[in-house]
Amino acid sequence: MTRRNLLKLAATAAAAPAVGSARPAPRIPIAVSTLGCPKWDWNTIVKNTSGWGFAALELRGIQDQMDLPKCAEFNGTRLAGTLADLAAVGLKVSDLGASAQMHEADPAKRAKYMDEARRFIDLAHAMHVPYVRVFPNQFIPGEDHKVTFARIAEGLHQLGEYARPGAVTVIVESHGEFRRAEDIVPIIDGAKSKNVAFLWDAHHTCVEGEKPADTFRDLGKYIRHTHLKDSVPVPGKSKEDRHYVLTGKGEIPVKETVRVLAKGGYKGYYCFEWEKRWHPDIDEPEVAFPHYAKTMREYLAEFGVRS
Length: 307
Fold this sequence. Notes:
Blueprint: H1 3-15, E1 30-33, H2 42-51, E2 56-59, H3 78-89, E3 92-101, H4 107-127, E4 131-135, H5 145-163, E5 169-173, H6 181-191, E6 196-201, H7 202-207, H8 212-219, E7 223-227, E8 230-233, E9 242-245, H9 254-263, E10 270-272, H10 285-302
Helix pairs in contact: 1-3, 1-4, 4-5, 5-6
């Protein structure tokens, strides 16, 4: 689908009436990624997540399709109906999760990633979604880190400026080898775009050894979205190889991260990224999703966050 056609769809989708007449009540700002429910179809996703009290969805694939612009739900005349489905139950879309990696030096691979990110930005504009996630993602062996920083920052700048007319912001995640604030600040500062910001995957920074308060101190002004999850170490494995467990049952300071965000004035979603697609052995979404919603209601209430 071309950018021109997506922009036409944006106007159509905005004008589509929502199903039902009652306006859903305000919800606490919790979101959930579709990464956690890879077997669910669209209707099941909407029904279950809204029923458990989530306020927003992070779109990261629907069933077997990870390339969101290719999902039937977001194409042609179905887009207006999809947005109406969400509006009818009071769900927003927090962000779209692209897989584009900004560190890539190979010209052909880099062009492919940049094209992917632009397609996601176009879709975000058509859906009135504020953010598109990209990865930083790796340091290249033998390459000076400053060169890698510059390449990533340039890619982010290009995407941020591309996204600006459509009121979309590109958010780069703490991911891959970019898990410390000292490596993330240079690429965001270097991007020199108001439409580039930060997605704080607090699990990754905490596993790397950073305390939530320290990450927030250095990156708080850039944070627009979050990924939260809990885990325990896997005996005999590296520190990155961990087993995901229900929120509050592991060693990741999720509650402390919520406290830091809430007391720091964070206004975005507290998003549950349950990596069921990549780790099929972890609990089913029917268990993990409502447990997260219940736990986060308790945390947010304690720290004065209501809606």
